Amino acid sequence: MSSATPPWFFDKCFWCLVTAIGQLTARLVRPYQTLPLCLARLVDEDVSMDARRVIAHWFVNTCGDCCLDAAFSKLLHSKCSGADDLLPDGSLHGVLQLAFCGKNTNIEAENNFARAQKAAQARTSLSTSMAAKHVLSEAKRCHLSDITSRVPASVATVDDESGGTS
Length: 166
Fold this sequence. Notes:
The chain is about 65% helix and about 0% strand. The radius of gyration is 32 Å and the shape is elongated. The protein has 2 domains: about 10-105, no CATH class; about 115-160. The protein has helices spanning about 10-35, 50-60, 75-80, 95-100, 105-150, 155-160.
């Protein structure tokens, strides 16, 4: 085997890396940058008040109806009279805490993770069971050919004509 690296190897590795990073970004970063999950930063105590004000003002003043989801953001936007309602001590801050400080926040992420785990396990068990089936079928074929080679030809033809009962 040659120790030289094929010329296409680094090109393929680069594009595999780009694809993997893109998929991770699409699945693990982008959902938290869009509504409604980006509003979770309003209840995060590690986020500065200035950053919270920027997010609240963006949501109330700049965010268009096209960006609002019908299940949560659109209803929250219709109830919000100003950015101060979303900040601590605001009238809607408790709604944000209920929505984002509970365990139900990561349901979609957990479902996606469970689905990926199940798919990965299914692929693994599928490949091993398929390999086991091939090994067993090959062993059965060898066993049957060994048996038929030991049986006299006259008995084998009679057995085949009788429907395989012996």
